[in-house]
Design goal:
This protein is an alpha+beta fold. The protein has one domain (about 1-165). It has helices at about 5-30, 35-40, 55-80, 125-135; strands spanning about 1-5, 45, 55, 85-90, 100-105, 110-115, 140-145, 150-155, 165. The strands form 2 sheets. A 7-stranded mixed β-sheet has the order 1-4-5-6-7-9-8, sandwiched between helices. It has a two-stranded antiparallel sheet with strand order 2-3. Strand 2 (about 45) and strand 3 (about 55) form a beta hairpin. Helix 1 (about 5-30) packs antiparallel against helix 3.
């Protein structure tokens, strides 16, 4: 996904909102609680947050929050680095690009993103910092969302020289 400006980001956020609404409506149409849980775990009652296709609801939840962090991080990055040429976002899909967010201007900006109950959950932040330590981007960031963490830079979490860590408000 390419975003070049705030309007692109707002369009993607609206798509996520619509996908979420469709999943909630489908869930609400189930009569029995056991059917609802079964569909959440095993069915395709969910929707992909960006693409128009069915998805497991648990996977929708995980992907939705990854996209929300990525898009909100992209807002900040486009405001902070005016010379990116735009950003390519592929949260969690490292087969298509080396980091979750990369500037279209080669090797200018690179970032990893995630949402978790805590930045230390499953050592996610440590893993992202390790990946960013090996990256050649001039400006490197780890963006996360975790309840209980204030939005903004968290320098106490910065364990790799040259990589900033920011909590994103979603």
């Amino acid at each position: 996904m390419i975003v070049r400006n705030q309007s692109d980001i707002e369009q993607h956020l609206a798509t996520i909102e619509a996908s979420t609404r469709r999943a909630i409506e489908a869930l609400g149409s189930l009569a029995r609680p056991a059917d609802a849980l079964r569909q959440m775990k095993f069915g395709t009652i969910g929707r992909h947050p960006i693409e128009d296709r069915a998805l497991n609801l648990v996977e929708q939840i995980n992907q939705t929050f990854s996209y929300l962090v990525a898009l909100n991080a992209a807002k900040w990055l486009l405001e902070t680095h005016l010379d990116t040429g735009g950003l390519s976002l592929a949260p969690g899909a490292h087969a298509s690009q080396r980091l979750d967010i990369m500037s279209l201007q080669p090797n200018l900006v690179g970032a990893e993103v995630f949402a978790a109950t805590s930045p230390s959950s499953n050592r996610k932040l440590d893993k992202d910092l390790k990946r960013l330590a090996r990256d050649s981007s001039q400006h490197r960031y780890a963006f996360f969302y975790s309840p209980g963490y204030a939005p903004g830079r968290h320098s106490k979490l910065e364990k790799v020289t040259g990589v900033q860590v920011h909590c994103i408000d979603i």
